[in-house]
Write a structure and sequence with these properties.
The structure is a homodimer of 367-residue chains. With 367 residues, chain A is α/β, with parallel strands linked by helices. Chain A folds into two domains: 168 residues, Rossmann fold (3-Layer(aba) Sandwich), CATH 3.40.50; 185 residues, Dehydroquinate synthase-like - alpha domain (Dehydroquinate synthase-like, alpha domain). Chain A is 53% helix and 14% strand. In chain A, the strands form two sheets. A six-stranded parallel β-sheet of chain A has the order 1-8-5-4-2-3, sandwiched between helices. A two-stranded antiparallel ribbon of chain A has the order 6-7. The relative contact order of chain A is 0.12. Chains A and B meet through strand 1, helix 1 and helix 8 of A and strand 1, helix 1 and helix 8 of B. Strand 1 of chain A pairs antiparallel with strand 1 of chain B.
């Protein structure tokens, strides 16, 4: 059995990377479209650092700051229009997963002169514009993946697309941009990271190398779980969570995600539960479900987390997250049925899951 | 402090990768220059697999099979001439480090219309031709690095060059190509891998991520050291050594090497000691020298190797390698003085080394 590893993004990680390594950005283009959310790029301090860098590099730029949480293709289309009007030759995503994912889509659509609706088609022949990722949360790992996820209101789902040409060319990962994140977002996004690492480690697509990276990410999370519980977010904690998030991204760049993420999407789409938080609620029940198929790997995860049982994982998420809501059984069944339509996610999950299994995971998490 | 990670090579590793993933190669060019040594590409079975793949892809190819061990720029120049005559648009290195490194140099020189002597200059503006690496030894890691090393007879040294554009686009790493390697070459190259991982781990350029990869490579070597001692080279051993070699390459792609490699070069150049073997002889004395500067990391290495002391490392290399020759003190001093001229290697070594220190490492290894 052969395995692959592909991670072409040039990553710089640490305090001050825009100042120290921003010159790499100057070689990529002259007219940048900067894609951000409404606030986080500014409040994080990333925008000010980027502006300073852009002035130093003489980079012209136009800002699209209308990316909401869980963006739709409508948002993508607006950003594409702006990129075309401004003749952008470089796209920079600053923010959490939503702006970075939007930036990836724009970078691919512009040179292909394609409408946003064609994003999920395989026939976009032109290479994307170079795309640079500057994350302001420690969770998504989008700065080092070829994946992007959008909300499709017509289908009432969130749907990912993946294209190996869509890896950011450059990721400038400065943990200082997460210093101002409130505790709840810090926890939600840290749990997103943890599930990336755990799902990747337990995926049928896991490789020896992705496993090494996944265990390292889990270990970094484990080292900071007391800090998260205590709400003590010192720079060393921020740094480890940021590094863990980037490692988690490197993992799912190889493995993709599995049913945990797929079950989380309708919780976000239909019930407004933040993405990472939804994953956190599902984690313990997911581990219990996978355990019979991967007993050794689940034990390894617990060992690295410093825990003796999956119940301790449940206890941790109970302590970290607000109490999960209750859903009527019909709604749990609807969400499970929706998740069961995602064939590839099911195929990569280590244990074969029926709609009843999926519903059971939701029940245990929200019942 | 910030750190970087860059590894743009698409890697496939496992038995049968040429057959399973060779299609990637077909997208890179139509007229390949295949760079090999005089025998290893054929005896390993790699050439037959490549020929089959090339036929299936309709890839035209011309073979340059004149790369010796420790190639000079003359060899590079001959291969460049052939590539130009044949209008090659793709370069494929099949073999150990020497053919792969030669292939990298050819790929860079051809589009720059540059003579081989200009390889070490920074002003080659054109992007290299795409280069594909198919290793037939488990040692060099060149399949995933931007480095290449050549022998410069006029200066009586081996000298490396590094260019981030020179990473192979694709590495097809099949451990079966090492099945026919004799035990001594297997041991020499495995020790090359081990020193890549150890030097990278102890380098001033080490990063958290390169450390994770380095410890994994050391652990894989440790898992196979009994097999090497017993000369029992089953497929599982071959596979782990190949994977370790690729990980070791990923490490030095981030960290480069340090004085151990630099001290090894004159042993190869002037005394014909195979590269990996020279590194093996030097390993224990190098660890003793570095220990005061990096006591925790040296202990970690010993722990992962399953050893209690550096003396056990010395014992292992004594058991694995033929007895080292003796050199007159003058010659040891000459080689130490030569190594002391490599400023960057000294700068990246964790402990400041004087020429006397370097001579002492040589003395302890060969005295």
């Amino acid at each position: 059995m052969a395995f692959s590893f592909y991670l072409p993004t040039r990553v710089f990680l640490g305090e001050g990377v825009l100042e120290e390594y921003g010159d790499f950005l100057g070689r990529l283009g002259r007219r940048a479209l900067v894609v951000t959310g409404r606030k986080s790029a500014v409040t994080s301090g990333a925008m000010a650092d980027f502006e300073e860098l852009a002035k130093r590099l003489g980079l012209s730029r136009v800002v699209f700051d209308e990316v909401p949480a869980n963006p739709t293709l409508e948002t993508v289309a607006k950003a594409v229009d702006l990129a075309r009007r401004e003749d952008a030759d470089l796209v920079i995503g600053i923010g959490g997963g939503s702006p970075m994912d939007t930036a990836k889509a724009v970078a691919l659509l512009v040179p292909n002169r394609a409408e946003a609706g064609r994003l999920y088609e395989a026939d976009l022949p032109e290479l994307p514009l170079p795309m640079v990722a500057i994350p302001t949360t420690a969770g998504t790992g989008s700065e080092v993946t070829q994946h992007a996820v959008f909300t499709l209101p017509a289908k009432e789902i969130k749907k990912g697309f993946s294209d190996d040409r869509c890896f950011p060319v450059l990721a400038l990962v400065d943990p200082r941009y997460t210093y101002s994140l409130p505790l709840d977002i810090t926890i939600d996004t840290a749990l997103d990271t943890l599930t990336h690492a755990i799902e990747g480690y337990l995926s049928r697509r896991a490789t020896p190398l992705s496993d090494t990276l996944a265990l390292e990410a889990i270990s970094l999370f484990a080292g900071q779980k007391e800090a998260l519980l205590a709400g003590k977010l010192l720079p060393a904690t921020r740094r480890d969570l940021m590094y863990a998030a980037t490692l988690g991204g490197m993992v799912i760049a190889q493995t993709r995600t599995t049913i945990l993420h797929t079950l989380g999407y309708p919780l976000t789409y239909s019930h407004d539960i933040p993405h990472g938080r939804a994953n956190g609620y599902l984690l313990a029940a997911y581990l219990e479900f996978i355990r019979p198929a991967e007993p050794v790997k689940v034990d390894n995860i617990l060992k690295v987390l410093g825990m003796a049982s999956v119940e301790e994982v449940a206890e941790l998420t109970r302590c970290l997250l607000p109490p999960p809501g209750k859903f009527p059984e019909k709604e749990l069944e609807r969400m499970a049925a929706l998740a069961a339509t995602n064939g590839s996610s099911l195929a990569w999950t280590a244990r074969q899951a029926t709609p009843a299994d999926l519903c059971n995971i939701l029940c245990r998490s929200f019942g």
